[in-house]
């Protein structure tokens, strides 16, 4: 595989401390399997000097979209974001955007708990309540029917993230790699994506 098979590297990583160093290491892991990883920062030259505000944010969004358009696929971190059960919402949008283009996707996470477990943990920690079985017409509903104290379903049984997220990754032929070492989880996902793009 040539070294110019571009793949988009996405996740909440852009918000983490040491983000540049993280992406440098991810790019090296991509090169080891014949891919060229592009991080969101790669399309944002000069933007960092602009003042914060709506126009700058829109420039970042446009730059990220342009990078995605150049790529054959994407590797997405689906770790829970801001101590919640769900991943970074911007990355979720990017998964949908690239799926709509018919591109190949891969995911990875260090948190292999199933999504309803993550919701239960978040609710307990943040709100001190527990999930419960939803009851409809005086009878419990079975599959996908656990709800939180606000009556919102904790769905996506069998998946580590929201069903649309992991579902789109799986529909593209990929899966979500799980490993307690962040870089090893990424490496597994990158290797699988390289195989499918090869």
Automatic annotation (TrEMBL):
<dbReference type="InterPro" id="IPR007710">
    <property type="entry name" value="Nucleoside_deoxyribTrfase"/>
</dbReference>
<dbReference type="InterPro" id="IPR051239">
    <property type="entry name" value="2'-dNMP_N-hydrolase"/>
</dbReference>
<protein>
    <submittedName>
        <fullName>Nucleoside 2-deoxyribosyltransferase</fullName>
    </submittedName>
</protein>
<dbReference type="Pfam" id="PF05014">
    <property type="entry name" value="Nuc_deoxyrib_tr"/>
</dbReference>
């Amino acid at each position: 595989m040539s070294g110019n098979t571009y793949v988009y590297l996405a996740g909440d990583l852009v918000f983490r401390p040491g983000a540049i160093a993280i992406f440098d290491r991810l790019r090296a892991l991509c090169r080891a399997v014949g891919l060229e990883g592009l991080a969101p920062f790669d399309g944002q030259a000069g933007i960092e000097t602009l003042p914060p505000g709506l126009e700058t944010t829109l420039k970042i969004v446009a730059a990220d979209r342009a990078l995605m358009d150049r790529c054959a696929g994407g590797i997405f971190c689906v770790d829970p974001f801001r101590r919640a059960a769900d991943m970074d919402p911007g990355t979720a949008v990017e998964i949908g955007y690239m799926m709509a283009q018919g591109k190949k996707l891969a995911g990875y996470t260090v948190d292999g708990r199933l999504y309803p477990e993550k919701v239960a943990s978040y609710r307990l920690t943040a709100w001190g309540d527990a999930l419960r079985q939803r009851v409809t017409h005086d009878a419990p509903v079975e599959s996908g029917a656990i709800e939180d104290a606000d009556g919102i379903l904790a769905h996506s049984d069998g998946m580590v993230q929201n069903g649309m997220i992991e579902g789109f990754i799986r529909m593209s032929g990929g899966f979500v790699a799980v490993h307690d070492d962040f870089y090893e989880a990424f490496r597994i996902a990158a290797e699988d994506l390289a195989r499918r793009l090869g």
